[in-house]
Specification:
The protein has a single domain, classed as Class I glutamine amidotransferase (GATase) domain (Rossmann fold), CATH 3.40.50.880. Helices cover 26% and strands 31% of the residues. It has six helices and twelve strands. The strands form two sheets. A six-stranded mixed sheet has the order 2-1-3-4-12-11. Strands 5, 6, 7, 8, 9 and 10 form a six-stranded mixed sheet that branches. The protein is globular, with a radius of gyration of 17 Å. Glutamine binds next to helix 2 and strand 8.
């Protein structure tokens, strides 16, 4: 593929908890190491954008205040988002961004922040916050590790990203974490997510390359350090 892979980074000034933008760095470098080029477009709150100009979109996490600001610009465009996702647009959404894919995010005072309605999913804030290291097992991406910090409890009947091995996940009750729907991956896992989970980074990149019509299979990278970091985490947490 000679065209650059076009990555849209939505609202980096608002949704960047725990350095979620590090996920973009991983995607860019894993392309570079294979001789592939990328074009990253930060999209700020007031910018005009068209989802058809991206091969992959990232929505990071944020505080309740920042989520509300983002929701005000997202909600009026929900039809465009819904049709882009049903056309197969790859999207990685983390924590606050993940919550905004559902019907609503209900705050402690009962006020509902409206979501994009892409997923049949609801999130309600409760105490205590669900904080700490998390490890999950995904049927197609293997072990995924990272860090979570959310007040929201999320419920849905879509396929989860994985089953919780250590930590809380979607709601601390049903043992499920995240979502995998069409080419959307939603998750509570920060870290940032992708540096410690190279297999997930490559899954997302391959999906984006396929969506872009690149007709290219990503060759494997060594990933020895990344795999050792992941292994060390699992051994410490699951002893
Ligand atoms: N504000 C949301 C919550 O507390 C999301 C937080 C986050 O993105 N880490 O549930």
């Amino acid at each position: 593929m000679c065209k650059p892979l076009r990555i849209g980074h939505l609202y980096p000034e608002l949704l960047n908890l725990y350095a979620d933008k590090g996920n973009i760095q991983v995607l860019v470098h894993r392309c570079q190491w294979r001789g592939l080029t990328t074009e990253v477009t930060p999209v700020y709150g007031t910018d005009t954008y068209h989802l058809q100009n991206f091969d992959l979109v990232l929505l990071g996490g944020g505080s309740d205040r920042e989520q509300e600001l983002v929701a005000q610009t997202l909600y009026p465009r929900r039809q465009e988002w819904q049709s882009a996702i049903s056309d197969g647009l790859p999207l990685l959404a983390i924590c606050g961004g993940y919550q905004l894919l559902g019907e609503f995010y209900q705050l402690a005072d009962g006020h509902k922040v409206p979501g994009l309605g892409i997923l049949d999913m609801q999130t309600v804030v409760s105490q205590p916050r669900l904080i700490g290291n998390i490890g999950i097992d995904s049927p197609w991406a293997g072990r995924i590790v990272g860090f979570e910090n959310h007040g929201g409890r999320t419920t849905h009947h879509h396929n989860p990203l994985g089953q919780v091995l250590h930590g809380h996940g979607n709601n601390g009750i049903d043992g499920q974490e995240g979502v995998h729907f069409q080419n959307v991956i939603g998750t509570y896992i920060h870290g940032p997510l992708l540096p410690k989970n190279p297999q997930l980074a490559d899954f997302i990149l391959q999906t984006a390359l396929d969506y872009a019509g690149g007709n290219l299979i990503l060759p494997p990278l060594p990933d020895n350090l990344e795999k050792a970091a992941q292994q060390a985490f699992m051994e410490r947490r699951l002893r």
